[in-house]
Specification:
single chain; mainly beta; 12-stranded antiparallel barrel; 2 helices; globular
Length: 246
């Protein structure tokens, strides 16, 4: 995540970005991906879908994510994320995930780049790529990749709707090549609270619908949501994330 509480814009205002920071313990369903084939996204997101926000050059975002399935303590997952603004409406990041509370972890890193080629008052167009690499090598899995493109529309001040497409190579979201559509919604409720939701299509490890909120408390942002698996309600999960911009 890294939506936070702010006005829409290509880059986070420098004055805001300098006074926030973040640790994260679960990238929603993305982290489940590392432990159960659903990769996390190493850039600013709503919950799982990359957002239409791009960090200003030199700004850093840190996140810690926690995800768990109620009543199944052995299925509690953790992830860490770092994202930096490169400039020219580009940000790059890395996730460390595949970490579980009980049992064998499958540590993996996802490298990501996001580029926003168009931005105006009503519309923005954003593309990005991710590369997943298992830190213990081929014993845990082969490298894989993911790409997406989406358009965000801001019809009203404080409201944003996102829609796009995505493609993943074998091993990223499923055993074979997968592709589909994505969507997101964000609505400001006052100056500190945002109600938001996102969705990846398909019966794969990315295929979840996650509604929730982002709440700014001083210099911190807390994200909370509940992820509904497209094809299997037994895979539903709760998540909470903590973030801060530096």
């Amino acid at each position: 995540m890294a939506f936070g509480i702010r006005r829409w814009g290509r880059c986070l205002p420098t004055a805001v970005a300098r006074h926030r920071g973040l640790w994260v313990w679960v990238n929603g369903i993305a982290l489940v991906g590392w432990a159960f084939a659903a990769p996390a996204v190493a850039q600013q997101t709503l919950f799982n879908v990359p957002s239409a926000d791009v960090l200003a050059a030199g700004n850093l975002y840190l996140e810690e994510d926690n995800l768990w399935r109620p009543g199944r303590r052995e299925e509690t997952f953790f992830a860490l994320r770092a994202v930096v603004g490169v400039g020219s409406a580009i940000e790059a990041g890395v996730n460390l995930g595949g970490l579980v509370a009980e049992g064998r972890s499958v540590p993996a890193a996802i490298l990501a780049v996001k580029w926003q080629s168009l931005h105006n008052k009503l519309w923005s167009f954003t593309t990005g790529v991710h590369g997943q690499f298992f830190l213990r090598g081929s014993a845990d899995g082969s490298p894989s990749g993911h790409a997406y493109a989406h358009t965000a529309w801001t019809p009203l001040d404080g409201t944003r709707v996102t829609a796009g497409i995505w493609y993943a190579s074998s091993g990223y979201a499923d055993t074979g090549v997968t592709k589909g559509v994505l969507a997101g919604f964000e609505q400001h409720l006052g100056s500190t609270l945002v109600v938001q939701a996102d969705w990846f299509s398909g019966k794969n490890s990315l295929g979840y619908f996650t509604p929730g909120f982002a709440w700014t408390i001083g210099e911190w942002v807390v994200y909370a949501g509940y992820s509904f698996k497209n094809s299997d309600p037994h895979e539903n999960a709760a998540l909470i994330e903590f973030g801060r911009y530096l």
